Amino acid sequence: MTPSLGTDPRIVTRPALAGLSDAGKTWRRPTAAVVGAGIAGLTAATGLAERGVTVTVFERETHLGGRVGGWRERLPDGSDVTMSRGFHAFFRQYYNLRALLTRTDPHLERLTPLTDYPLLDAHGRTDTFAGLPRNPPWNALAFAWRSPTFTPRDLLRISGRDALPLATVSVPKTYYELDKTDAKSFLESINFPAAAQHLAFEVFSRSFFADPSELSAAELATMFHLYFLGSSEGLVFDVPTEPFPQALWDPLAAYLADRRVEIRTGTEVSALERTPDGFDVEAAGRTEHFDAVVLACEVTGLRKIVAASPTLGTAPWRTAVGALRTAPPFLIRRLWLDRPVHPDRSPFLGTGSVPPLDNISLLNRFEGEARRWAAHTEGSVVELHAYAATETDQESLAGAMDERLHEIYPETREAGVIGAINLWRQDCPLFGVGDFARRPTVTTPDPALALAGDGIRIDLPVALMERAAATGWTAANTLLQHWGITGHPVRSVPNRGRIGVLNRLAESRYFTGARV
After folding, report:
1. What CA–CA distance (Å, rounded) separates 387 from 332?
2. Phi and psi for 7 in degrees, rounded to 5?
3. Where are the domains of the chain?
4. Is the peptide bond before 137 cis (omega within 30 degrees of 0)?
5. CATH code of the region 17-66+243-325+436-488
6. What is the pLDDT of residues 315-355, one digit of tens each?
7. Using CA atoms, how far apart are residues 341 and 318, in angstroms rounded to an integer?
8. Each residue of 219-264: pLDDT tens digit?
9. 119: β partners
10. CB atoms within 10 A of CB 153
11. Alpha carbon of 224 to those of 97, 167, 350: distances in Å?
12. In the 8-state DSSP scheme, what is residue 277?
């Protein structure tokens, strides 16, 4: 495996089932519709097209990438800029996402590392992840030793017996144990220090755009495992060197076009109808026939399509899709300022302990387009995020976010705003308490229909963008297996804790045959 796909010697690879090497070797080359051109849909389309399936991708928006997409905007000063949903961390343990990106960037040269993830607490103290050992448990011990908010004494006060699930994660077992408990209550039950809870909530819980009291403790534990306790890749991550379209999706679109994939943006699928030999797909007032379909749209779109398609699946499956929920709304605010931010500021700062602001990103520190704009204007490009918003007045919320920015970075208070764009969205999946058991999986009651997306259940230790990519590869494999064609490997961090004695202790306490 190349370094770009990970260095952890314990990476788990699930090989694809063997079959025909190319769809052209079947009696008739199959066709597939992929609904949604986010990470999940583009991954599924790649997996199918590389095996010779004729693929058509339908995307409601006019751009690719879904929630990691971008589009053109013009500032009041006449500058053309790329707007997006903002900062995303491409962690080194995102093996399936990185496998997709290597299709057009074999050494991932269009990504650049950010070496720290500093977090500011309500008292002005900053925790940092830079320079930690990469291997568990030494990374956790070193972090506790030097943290101003999480001390070695706090580590000793944690209820080791009740905290075992954090160090012994295995999917789906962890969900059998913890999914009916919320993240906030779980941390309180194990005596996780109150002063340090912002670490768990900012790094893990609020990454799901949800309040900790609404998030499943199983998701929190899986996040701990994926990023910290179950991987030796560390919390170092990469970010694209240019906006998402230029760095990621334009090259991938060209790659797919070379493999006869047709991508139709600005085309919303309204319904599917099951036929004896496939599906009729209704989109933009037109109906086309396909042998198979991958539904890789966001939660609201998936619910809408299934509700309008009574011939799909079974009644229980349709109920499960209809029960999917979205997380609370969030606001992204990007500011183009007429002066620089102090050079000592970090490119990224977590600020979830000083609501309503959750983080501050300085785009011109790592993104080429923003860097060029800042150099030309002698200014800066600053991005603010507010997750799980309780304030529904966007203007008031934006003002409160700006005020927090000025408190944390005082040099911005007198800066002139050359341009400002706000994005208010509510389309991320909610991983609520008790949702796991009824969450739909990649496979469906119909072998010619698969689901993909970061809201879809897959029994691997993955999350966020990596869950989207993992379900995308798995959806492609599901259809390829249906046609007797070789699929693609799927990788993950180890699906169990890395400390053997703790695993054995946990196995002695829990009935592993339990079910949600």
Report:
1. 9
2. -120, -5
3. 17-66+243-325+436-488, 119-235+497-509
4. yes
5. 3.50.50.60
6. 999 999 999 999 999 999 999 999 999 999 999 999 988 99
7. 50
8. 999 998 998 889 999 877 899 999 999 999 999 999 999 999 999 9
9. 127, 350
10. 9
11. 19, 8, 17
12. T
